[in-house]
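This section describes the prediction task in plain terms. A model, or a person checking by hand, is given the sequence of a single protein chain and must write out its three-dimensional structure as a string of tokens. No templates, partner chains or ligands are provided. The sample shown here is typical of the held-out split.
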Amino acid sequence: MQLTIRLLRETDGRWIGDVSELPGVTVYGATPEEATLKAKALALRVIAEEIEHGELPAGADTLQFSVAA
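The expected answer:
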């Protein structure tokens, strides 16, 4: 499973980290690095919930993150 973290900077200086493949996985961070780490952590929590409920798509045995700014 390939997940892409998109980083955007808000006008107030905060960074948004968004994982488009997982609806609702959007976080704020003070730096791009913080937003990336928070996005990864939340994505992993969502994926763990999907695994527990048997909702993970077939063939999603591996996980890889990439960052697109």
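For orientation: The longest helix spans residues 32-52.
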